Amino acid sequence: MAKIIMRTPLVEMDGDEMTRIVWKWIKDILIEPYVELKTEYYDLGLESREKTKDQITIDSAEATKKYGVAVKCATITPNAARVKEYNLTEMWKSPNGTIRAILDGTVFREPILVKGISPFVRTWKKPISIARHAYGDVYKNTEMKIEGPGKAELVFTDENGIETRKTIHDFTDPGIIMGMHNTEKSIESFARACFNYALDKKQDLWFATKDTISKTYDHSFKDIFQDIFDAEYKEKFDETGIEYFYTLIDDAVARVVRSEGGFIWACKNYDGDVMSDMVASAFGSLAMMTSVLVSPEGYYEYEAAHGTVQRHYYQHLEGKETSTNSVATIFAWTGALRKRGQLDEIPELEHFADMLEKACLKTIEEGIMTKDLVALSQLENKKVVNAKEFLYAIQDRLNTIMGQKE
Ligand code: NAP
Ligand code: MG
After folding, report:
1. What's the CA-to-centroid distance between 318 and ligand 1, angstroms?
2. How far does the centroid of ligand 1 lie from the alpha carbon of residue 304, in Å?
3. Which domains does the chain have, with CATH numbers?
4. Of the N and C termini of the chain, which has fewer Cβ atoms inside 10 Å?
């Protein structure tokens, strides 16, 4: 069978540690035998970021703006220990943060469901995607400890020096205060990213805040979403047969648990932080969670939700085999290839992405899986394999599905 030809390159962002090893194997075993792979390669491995003074990360984000679709391997976010380990001249910022700032995107996370691994919530039949606003609120706050009696005020000074004041609290005893912010621009681009993603996935969009209590702050989120929806998206949603649904955050949590899934849940920054961990754990495993950054202009960057699996890498360096789960990273590749196929109108490429995903699920559903899934799977006969055996097991099924088996 002839290899599938691509038109536009994918922006390929290589990464670190065990995921870097698995990255290469995925390309060798599951992609390049089938696709004449076209990528523009950016090495975001920590050594290359150090060598380029992190310019490579910026370049890769700019390339994503140029081509529209990127696929990213997990990368180390340096801390003090990593500065020592890699002899860094600087504690380089999180590549994901840098890329997000340049693309101005929203992160969507979605669990991969397989038969034999059921969600802890009985009613969940379809995946729930979390869309997390990635700017502001408590993550960019200013806090203060109040040592004794006094008056705490919120003061805004405009460009002309005119002050607006509001009393936060007249303290009679020690206490604490906090100030936080968001911008209309950031909330608007969050809203558009969510509406576009819902149209893309043909799934309902839910959004919730605490606007009854926070009558200005949270209410602004509610109003901005509604205004943009009415002005720009209502018709498209009607045509697609999907809904935008707003409710209070506590009501949303109750409804999510009773739902059967199959929708996108847009969350304010803190809600998204907490709820994505809840949803990921309830569905099973971080190694079965995909993640895509979508910009309001429609640029896409696909990755796995997990990190570089450092512990496995050190075992790998000692020459030991590891049972690293590659599913989320494979799905990052299939997400990117499918999107490229859609944009360039290459149906074979879209089909290949579908088939590769199907082969991954079939492998696990037939009882061949990595160590992390064994404890979760309710199958009777399970076989634990190492990372490479797992990829070959997927290849075997991919060949069968594509009718290529000799
Ligand atoms: P991690 O790489 O997600 O791994 C934590 C543990 O979860 C692993 O030790 C492993 O458990 C299990 N695990 C995660 N992914 C797995 C997979 N694909 N297959 C099998 N088991 C898996 O998190 P971390 O060890 O805290 O972080 C390592 C590095 O990743 C850090 O330097 C961090 O900065 C970076 N990171 C990057 C991203 C990103 O680029 N998006 C995200 C998060 C973290 P066992 O060891 O018990 O098998
Ligand atoms: Mg968290």
Report:
1. 18
2. 10
3. 1-109+301-406 (3.40.718.10)
4. C
